Amino acid sequence: MSRPWLSIIGIGEDGMDGLSAEARSLVEKAEIIIGGDRHHKLADNVTARRVAWPSPFDAMIDEIRRHKGRRIVILVTGDPLWYSVGARILKSIPAAQVQFFPQLSAFQWAACRMGWSLADVETVTVHGRAAEQIIPHFAPGVRLLVLTRDGDSPKEVAAFLKRRGFSQSPMSVLASLGGPKEKRIDGIAANWRRKAPDFHVLAIECVADAGVEAFSRTGGLPDSAFEHDGQLTKRAVRAATLSALQPYPDALLWDVGAGCGSVSIEWMRAARGASAIAIEPDVARCEMINKNRLTLGVPKLQIVSGEAPEALRGLPAPDAVFIGGGLSKKDVFETAWRALRPGGRLAANAVTLESEARLVVLAGKHGGTLERIAASEAVPVGRYRAMKPHMTVTQWTVIKGAVTKP
User: Which end of the chain is more exposed for a tag (fewer CB within 10 A), N or C?
Assistant: First the structure.
């Protein structure tokens, strides 16, 4: 096996002095060094040709490949494989051709400064990503370490905390960790006004306001959490639907006939890296999906405004499919089923007799399980209360490639 030709080296605020002997030697002998401005300044006594990160990042992959055969080093902050460029580079360059030299990560430094066990902390990033994705992590007592975008990130995150009912959460900006210019700024989300240094980690200890309704990441958010026009998979049925779909990390869901997007939003909240495409023909409902995805912290939810099955064609193959609307329309199921990856799950809900009959036929052909879900809710009846039943839902769940039939 040939030796790696690309070295990715984590460097800290102590610069070259903090590197191992091998990593330091590689930097000193490098012909080309790629990194950000701060990385170049931390290794400013080296004579290699300097290359800055370009935009878009894909251009850097081409730049790296052009120099194969020369002594090339990439400098990054801390751990190259923890919310850093290492993982992205490995998507284009085989791991056997790359060697990594990690430093203490910003998260490790921050946990030590806060006196927090890193194993008990949620680590997230909003660097180069929509900041709303931090919202699903808010829960009473949760400690967060956030890799930020710039000096305005704490103000933006504080606004989210206030909006979700965590206004009294302590926040600490930790900048230039481990270096001579290390700085800390403490405050409370409710009155955070200060601009932070551009390069920092934000530590948050979530404290719920009195009476706030905190949301879990498991399926079954209250119906009131969503803006909707009545076209909503109700909480009890939605929880059963999420259970049938079984969200898992990095899996893609097609939410066909998405309504207000409740199922696809909860799918993405349930598992790290899970993604979804909400397909909805009604333009007003697409706008509701857009509002709900931002409010509930899944800004990466993709919205496709169109009618199935036509709107399904050309989409990336899903790992799971939910059909909440359009089941009776010709070729909706067939198109989704063909696209579904082997081993993927499909769940379909029916409320009309016609769509229920369609599920019975499909279950007879493809197997799976049929279940009837009935839920009731207490409502006022004069001075008393009575249970008012919701519409009964028939749910079909099937795994593509499974051999069992009902």
Answer: N
CATH topology of domain 223-399: Rossmann fold (3.40.50)
> According to the CATH classification, is domain 6-103 in 3.40.718.10?
no
Here the tokens at position 303 are 């919205």
Q: Give the DSSP letter string of 244-262.
A: HH---TT-EEEEET-TTSH
pTM, entire model: 0.90
The total of other beta-carbon atoms located within 10 Å of residue 371's CB is 11
Fold adopted by 107-205:
3.30.950
∠ Cα 146 149 155 (to 5°)? 75
The two tokens of residue 280 are: 């909805």
Question: pLDDT of 84-111, one tens digit each?
Answer: 899 999 999 999 999 999 999 999 999 9
Q: Which of 179, 218, 259 is nearest to 16 (CA)?
A: 179
Q: What is the pLDDT of residues 147-186, one digit of tens each?
A: 999 999 999 999 999 999 999 999 999 999 998 899 999 9
